[in-house]
Amino acid sequence: MLWAARLNESEARQIDLFGLLDRFRSGVFDEPSIAVRRVLQSGEPYERELKFADRDQTLELRIALATDRNGNGSNGNGEVRYCDCDELIIGGERTPMPHFHNCEYVRQRNSLIKEAERIATGQCGNADPYGWTKVFVAAMDKLAEPLLNNGAKG
Ligand SMILES: [Zn+2]
After folding, report:
1. Do 101 and 82 form a contact (C-beta atoms < 8 A)?
2. Average pLDDT, stretch 131-136?
């Protein structure tokens, strides 16, 4: 990943997510922040093959929410569980519940999206997708904070 983005290690430590994604700008991935926005809003991973003709290189890009990383649909006993959250319908198919998935938290967090969008659009309008996404992410974090502090329960 770091090699593909052509960053050295000290650059990698300084760069933020959007800076990093910017390195992947290409014909097929010309608006990284919109991809991130889509992942945040839908909860679905964004997957895309990026072709870099000049380097004769094809790269598989996957952007997903961090909680998805731990998800294998198993509760530890090898039992696969399903729930009713729309987030877990990926490509039209219902996927098993990720390990740390919390339906109530998802539901409450989803109810905050509209408010976060309103805040982001109020501050940035629609002309600046980078700024919009940053404000949106920050607003979501802030709005969701009480959910975490309440100890989101299953
Ligand atoms: Zn659920």
Report:
1. no
2. 89
| Other Cβ atoms closer than 10 A to 152 | 15
Contact criterion met (CB below 8 Å) for 111 and 66? no
Residue 107 CA to ligand 1 center (angstroms) comes to 8
- Domain count for the chain, please give it: 3
81 CA distance to ligand 1 middle (Å): 10
Task: Based on the fold, state whether residues 89 and 131 are members of the same structural domain.
Answer: no
Q: Is the dihedral of CA 139, 21, 42, 89 positive or negative?
A: negative
Ligand 1 centroid vs 125 CA: distance in angstroms?
32
47 and 83 both lie in a single domain: no
Residues 54 and 84 placed together within one structural domain of the fold: no
Question: Residue 18's domain spans which residues?
Answer: 1-64
pTM above 0.85, yes or no: no
